[in-house]
Predict the structure of Nitrate reductase.
Amino acid sequence: MARAASPDTRTTCPYCGVGCGVRAEMQEGRIIAVEGDAEHPANFGRLCVKGSALHETLGEHGRLTRPRLDGVDVDWDTALEAVATRLATTRDAHGPEAVAGYLSGQLLTEDYYVANKLFKGFLGTPHLDTNSRLCMASAVAAYKRSLGADAVPCNYEDLEDAELVVLVGSNLAWNHPVLFQRLRAAKTRNPLLRVVVIDPRITDTCELADLYLGVRPGSDARLFTGLLAWMAERGKLDRVYLERHTRGLDATLDEARRDDVSLEAIAADCDVDPERLETFFYWFASQLHVVTLYSQGINQSSSGTDKCQAIINCHLAGGKIGLPGAGPFSITGQPNAMGGREVGGLANQLAAHMDYDSPGAVERVTRFWSTASLVPRLPEAPGHKAVELFAAIERGEVRAVWIMATNPVVSLPDARRVRAALAQCPLVIVSECMADTDLLEVADIVLPASGWSEKDGTVTNSERCISRQRGLMAPPGEARHDWWIISTVAQRLGFGEAFGYTHPAEIFAEHARLSGFENAGEGRRCFDISALADLERDAYDALAPIQWPVTARAPQGTPRLFEDGHFATPDGHARLLPVAPRGPLQALDERRHCRLNTGRVRDQWHTMSRTARASRLMNHRAEPFIEVHPEDARALGLEDQALAQLEGEGGEYRGRVRLSPAQRRGEVFVPIHWSDRFSASAVAGDLLAAHVDPLSGQPESKHGAVSLAALPSAWQATLVVADDLQKVVDVCRETAYWARVPMRHAERWQLAGEPTSAGRDWWAWLDEILPVATSLWCDDPADGRLRAAGIEVGRLRWWLMVGPPTELPGLAWLDARFTEAAEGSALQADQRRRILAACEDGAADDGPLVCSCHQVGRGAIASAIHAGDASVEALGARLACGTQCGSCIPELKSLIEEERAHAFHPTPDVEPV
Ligand SMILES: Nc1nc2c(c(=O)[nH]1)N[C@H]1C(S)=C(S)[C@@H](COP(=O)(O)OP(=O)(O)OC[C@H]3O[C@@H](n4cnc5c(=O)[nH]c(N)nc54)[C@H](O)[C@@H]3O)O[C@H]1N2
Ligand SMILES: Nc1nc2c(c(=O)[nH]1)N[C@H]1C(S)=C(S)[C@@H](COP(=O)(O)OP(=O)(O)OC[C@H]3O[C@@H](n4cnc5c(=O)[nH]c(N)nc54)[C@H](O)[C@@H]3O)O[C@H]1N2
Ligand code: SF4
Ligand SMILES: [Mo]
């Protein structure tokens, strides 16, 4: 069949689990722009700020382009031979259980399938787990226990069709922005749609909240068991539904009633206002069309499975499931966390939603993977879950590990210990796209992988929708697709007959066949996409988004599950299960008296290996920070933007204080994005102890115990420098505090010195590290201030300001000066004078960035509000902020409120008593 004349440039965003469709605009084989795919059912044309900056993160610069063996660049043949030989040697000498794999929800389904088949099927080790353990494991365990399968019952339209949407432990506005926009639009269409937000922090998500419950961290199970008891008390249970479709109500209610079920007692335990609590209970109990959407504030807990269960119990008890606009909705984090679970990527799974304890599953998968002359040797029992796996590496039991598309030395709790364990592990193989990550420092063999826009395959989003990611550009250098790397190693290990793939379409077809293999009658597996098993290459290439199950009976896919009240349990009934609420295991004490909360910021993705490449995404939050309640800060003498230090079980964290009344007292919040690549000591995982949920193995990443103190410094400085000066990097990284902020044409370093260090001799320092002599300076020795710059052939090469960074103007103007000569115009004399000031004469400072799409700063927005713009629309008309992806709208709204409050009630010097 002839191919379409113009290639299909539709693909799927590689970041969050919303799974937005993207259209790429190509020029000479490269992506030069992206826009939302108007036909994709996840986003209908919308994109958030990360999605719309995708094309800015591409390019060969910073990519891994050659395999590396023991620190030396080698060719693929050498690298693959080393991987195969060393894996085989380890297995032969120490048994299959000495070999392990650690995968990621950012791999494509096809990569994941092949890796799972190699490790569990042919290397015969059960120790293959994934970073989804840190993310979705508790949600999965609860769905399986209660609904019988790891199956999200709802879809995105249910959020729009609901009468009540409860967002628990989810900062949807920042982390699933396009869904948040869909919710905002639905609320505008239907003013009766109510939104409740349950989160210890007041987040931007609260913009849509009709009711906010600022709960005590870790108290959610108590809230939902209390809700169940309250519903029973008021006759709000759906007795008919419970009778027909569920089991376990009585025991569950008995357990819920063990605690004091008075509103006052529940409110006190959750530290919320009893009237607000009652409003929430009343709303939940009296509406049928309720969606409870939950995420890491629930999952990342040492009792996360129970918390998910407590939510599901309330939905089952009210019959609020399997209907339009109703259901317990676990929202997925990574783009393909769900696809990874479909292929069996968790250590307690086998393949295609079959587990070790599913009757006949081991034999069935063995039959399916057998070839004419190869019989796989599957393990008989589940392997180590992530945290256990790295402990087994530390103990020396696991002696070879292959890590793909994840950075465990940053993202696991007690991260430093993970790093030490890997450093002494005899064989660490890492498949990665980027040349500079923390994990690569401990790798023996590095394999350069192709990345988004280069690789071809499928992902499954939060609503079970399978979409294509399409390969539109050639990978740089010698980077290869993950499925190819794994299959080639399998071939060299002698398993070629089972790994003869030549294209991801063949892998997908096999995966789809397995999902339908011996899958009929009683105990049918819910995950079944057998109707896609015969897709030819062209049909696979053209595959339109489709929600599983996709079967002969439902060839167009299945938008909603369990509509007939028949669940995936052996008897078809859903289970309510007793939940005994428990607090966090990381205990506060005299020394570590602050509750640590960790999470995400709007414009960054995880360890920033990709998002930091789009300089505009660095401007919203440029440095690692610690959000502290103003009263707590005052008690410690900490001011806004001061440097502070947290100390926890596994290590410390240094960042800049952000005073935040949105924070509860006695609690601090830090972002998870900074690694050793970007700051001196700002890995959130270093602060956490590695406690896990006993059922799911998911770590308690939201509830650390830390001490907070000022980080005194003798001096602070900002150095902006052309990004090709490696020596600067080495010297700056020796400073007590440093944060590296990539800019468009340069790199910014925020620096601070130990209080004990004598005042630095800046002139000597500049002489030592910078190849270009100082050309301009202005210096005020009395207060230790200094500004200086180095200019070479009319082009700015570096710029230094000694003094607190609160005095910094927005640096976009300065950044542009780093390209002047490249653009052919020599630096003008008057410009040279302005350079020290780092701004145009008389130009208003734009302040910190609010709208990343249109690069609008806080200063400009404040001026516009003073000039009379009193709405988001008015600001958009004047400055364009908030008009593209909409992610900054909550921040614009709060700025309007703040600025107007200032205008009408100037802040008094002394607070009223
Ligand atoms: N911008 C951006 N978006 C992302 C990502 C990213 O890195 N950056 N990552 C993606 C991934 S992999 C994931 S898993 C999702 C995560 O998405 P979310 O779960 O929304 O993200 P988090 O910021 O980790 O945490 C959510 C909220 O839980 C709250 N919380 C903490 N403790 C508790 C508690 O005890 N109870 C309650 N009710 N709430 C609590 C926190 O204050 C926080 O606001 O985001 C995805 N989207
Ligand atoms: N304290 C704390 N810790 C947390 C969390 C938290 O909220 N608090 N959240 C947890 C959660 S939910 C998650 S999902 C994890 C995320 O944590 P990680 O998975 O460790 O973080 P990423 O930076 O996404 O790592 C992905 C890596 O894969 C690379 N990569 C991208 N695409 C490909 C590809 O196609 N092939 C290959 N081979 N490599 C690729 C990227 O460059 C990057 O280095 O963090 C967890 N850790
Ligand atoms: S919401 Fe943003 S990050 Fe998530 S898939 Fe859509 S465009 Fe990508
Ligand atoms: Mo995640």
User: Anything to note?
Assistant: The two ends are 80 Å apart (CA to CA). The first helix runs from residue 49 to 52. Confidence is low (pLDDT under 50) at residues 905-913.
